[in-house]
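USER: I would love a firmer grasp of how sequence relates to backbone shape in proteins. This is the protein in question:
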Amino acid sequence: MNIQTFETTLHCRGCVNKVKPYLDKDSRIHSWKANIGSGVTLDIEGGISGHDLNKILAKEGYGLKNAGFWTDNLKWNRASFNTLNCLIGCSIGDFGMIFFLQAFYPATPLMWQMVLAVITGLCTSILLEAILMKKREGFSWNESFKTAFGMSFISMVAMELAMTSTDLMITGGKAGFDEPAYWLALAPALIFGFLVPLPYNYYKLKKFNESCH
């Protein structure tokens, strides 16, 4: 039987050990060998296709180098989860500030409402990301805030601008939160706030976060 060689995004022996159980138990693979150098190639004897092998490697966050940059479903799922966390954080500050201004300072000019809402949304998003990293990763508060600010600031700015612009286009900035028009604008604002930064988040995750740790 012919042996096929596949270039992968695996980095080291530790990465290979993560995918080893999947490769060992797949009935389409008769034998396989990992060649570790500047990268990792897999020599596989069997009838498995590159598409199916890519799906196996994706279970641990890896793939084939020629599988296509934008076709990693695992990374899309993770990027979507990260973007949703960011959206929740941004929304808390953004809409909270708008509620506050319209309830207590209704004469605030529209431009200042938008500026303050964006700034507050950025702050609450960074705070939420820092709390999650503190809890999940065990970072110190200083490390958590630095990491949260550094890894997601561009994404948060894009998200805030998308939400604010969508809301402004639909309501013209004239609908108060006690009017149906404001709440009708909320759903599309959240949808665009999620979709606009999602490709950027995927790109960063795919290009810079293929870690073996």
